[in-house]
Design brief:
- The chain folds into two domains: 31 residues, no CATH class; 152 residues.
- 54% of the residues lie in helices and 3% in strands.
- It has nine helices and two strands.
- A two-stranded antiparallel sheet has the order 1-2.
- Strand 1 and strand 2 form a beta hairpin.
- Helix 3 packs across helix 7.
- This is Si:ch211-266a5.12.
Amino acid sequence: MASALQYCFLILIFGIPMHECAAVLLNGSCLPVEPCFDLSVMANIAERVSKDVIAADGEKILLKHSSFDKIRKKKNLHSCVLLKIIHLFENVLEKTKKNDVHNTEEFNHHLELIHIMDQLRNCVYKTKNKCKTLYKMSDITTTSSPMKNMNPNQLAVLQLQKLKSASKRVNDVHIQEGVMDELKTLHLYMQGKGFRKNTQVIKETHGIS
């Protein structure tokens, strides 16, 4: 008991990191939970690809972080939006993989990022059919309120509409350049309630919120 208290004291004083345990073995040791995906890996590769892309002019496809923060706090909203974001970026990477200036026989950044997109998709919380309602809402809703006054649902609808508009013009070079330009900050949008931090899968039973 005393040793346990001493350990807790050391954690508080020196900031010794505590890892979440997937299981506690018979000998008392902790089997740590593996991270679902290290977003810094994607950020590093994306930075190499994006630095060769001329910064796109005009309106961004992804909302500003101040607005997107409202979405990321709602697990189902964030999950549904992430799936569409991943789909668009994966599609553009597929269409531009031949343009990879870093392409070698050993390594192609575009192909690696395409593989990463698939891994990211697996890290998004599964919402079964619950995204259909939100997607349908984005097809029939007109957003006219100032963005700063929008609630999370309205912002999610707006983001989905922007993604859908970009997807329809995915063969447009300007759209492709815009997506590749925003690729370097994509890892920041993954973080939130809809993205699993570890490999444990938790089944969700509640509706969109």
